[in-house]
Amino acid sequence: MAVNPQESEAIFAERFVKIICVGAGASGLLLAYKLSKHFNNYSLTIYEKNDDISGTWHENRYPGCACDVPAHNYTYSFEPKHDWSSVYAGSAEIKNYFKAFSTKYHLGKYIETSHHVDGAIWNEEFGEWHVDISDTRNGRKFRDNAHILIYATGYLNNPGWPDVQGIAEYKGSMLHSAAYEESVNLEGKKVALIGSGSSAVQILPAIQPKAREIITFIRSPIWILRTIADEPKPYSDAEKKEFLTNPEKLMHLRKYNEGVMNSIYSLYIANSVLQSLTRPELERQMRETLRDPYLEDALIPDWAVGCRRLAPDTGYLKALKKENVRVVKGGVTSFYADGCVDDKGERHAVDVIICATGFDTSFVPRFPVIGRDSRNLQDVWAKTPSSYLGVGVANFPNLLMSLGPYSPVANGPTLASIEAQADYILRAVDRYRTEPIHSFNPTSAAEADFTSHIASFMSRSVYSDKCRSGHKGHTVDGRVPTLWPGSTLHYLQAMQEFRGEDWEFRYTGNRFGFLGNGISHAEFDPTSDLAYYLKNEDDGAPLTRREKMKIEFRSGSQPERTLHFTYRPDIINLPERKVEKAEIVKQSSQSDVSGLKRDQSSEKRTGKFMKRLRKWLQCGDDQ
């Protein structure tokens, strides 16, 4: 009996793959979109613990909550929004962007809200994850299974309450910036604001006009960049309409903003010229605004710019000088029924306490994740988190992550990094479903080498300076900063290739089973060109990484620009000797940096850069 070859048995045949994603924030929604756009023969379920989507932008509702990135650039690269109300969009508006995205692309069919993941266990025999779920609406518990588990909870999802005595003794209203009760009325109240990070910088000017008195506790200083005005610039109806009718103008603004973000990474290299010239300028601006020795001592850091997240000032510094605001330099050591006690022993009776104390940034999952050989990721990450490129973990098969440890969350545009991770994850999933792969995960050696490189790089960056940072687990030097060792653009290039040699693959049967029945898909496609490889000239894709990258970032398409990364450690890294700014300028102008305009001094370039940066912050993650 004659039998025709079947396309389902052709080379790289696509088998069914079942995927579970934990989290319906920016990463989970993007994953659902890209799966629906590029894949077939799959199922996806996204379990979201909250009663609505959007992740951190659903959870963070504190007064003044906004993104400190210009709104037109806090979007997916392919999904602009023309009608943002303001330069710095509030959390509710950002949440609505993601909800509208979900609605537009019909992503709701993949999402189960109010479903809490209680645990996940890898089953080696079946090559799948068993995931325990609780439906918090009715208390029903059940188990689901998946070939691929994607952990997309982000790292800003677990409020970090002050770890001090007596927190349960306080009888007033105690709020956290990431778990804010909007029903609490601050009118006429005496309020304690604990923290001085990005959230506190936004909260203080928002509540200052309402509260009768505010005591703000500043344990750690923070670099604050003064903007052109005290309030975020609103967009007029005419501007919104022009952005809609003239997409090129909107694209020009987006590219300008993104270009600034992507041009300043040398600021985070210890002893870079940009760091050396930016720091005294920021200090001058802060002193000029504060004009108070006590406030200057409390707010102006003695460590490098960028060690802790640089915050744009939308009224914070001036709010500190208001009559109803009192600054306490130091932290809170305990609570009592009526208030809190500072580290000098002074008791402060207050009606409301707002803890702007950030998040638990340990990365430790909030539920057990049991991988191969009964390893629990909670235990593996108990002291120091680890990962491979922020997307995988050794000994945890078929587990992929978005914004895992050492992702570029403070290196530039975060959503661009999320997109790069989603593409990388789906390339891995596509390899899994088109080969007889039982399981795959990074090798222990690759993860160890990556971790070693991180430590080496961070020792040369400002992130390892003596500041208290969430990237170091809210310690001064308790761990290596869990950040990508380079810029966002650097990360995008690193993620373009799936380095198979860094992964352990286990197969079901012969690894070359993907060769199938010897027939290509072109032969099953009646519309294909069966001689597609014949050409009149060699116009094929580049074969080298450098040429591929040049095409990717459109080398040669833009006017020559001034570069900001002149780097001379031999000139600046001299603790025994004071280096004059003029000497830095003179020596740095001699650096052999391709494309650097030699007719401008570093100081002039940096002056122009600072003006550009301030303009961007007016025109234009650490919650």
Automatic annotation (TrEMBL):
It comes from the Eukaryota. InterPro entries: FAD-bind_Monooxygenase_sf, FAD/NAD-bd_sf, Flavin_mOase-like. The lineage of its organism: Eukaryota, Fungi, Dikarya, Ascomycota, Pezizomycotina. Keywords: FAD, Flavoprotein, Oxidoreductase. Pfam families: FMO-like (PF00743). Residues 583-609 are annotated as: Disordered. This is Monooxygenase. It comes from Clohesyomyces aquaticus. One of its GO terms (molecular function) is NADP binding. Belongs to the FAD-binding monooxygenase family. Residues 595-606 have a biased composition (Basic and acidic residues). Transmembrane segments: none annotated.
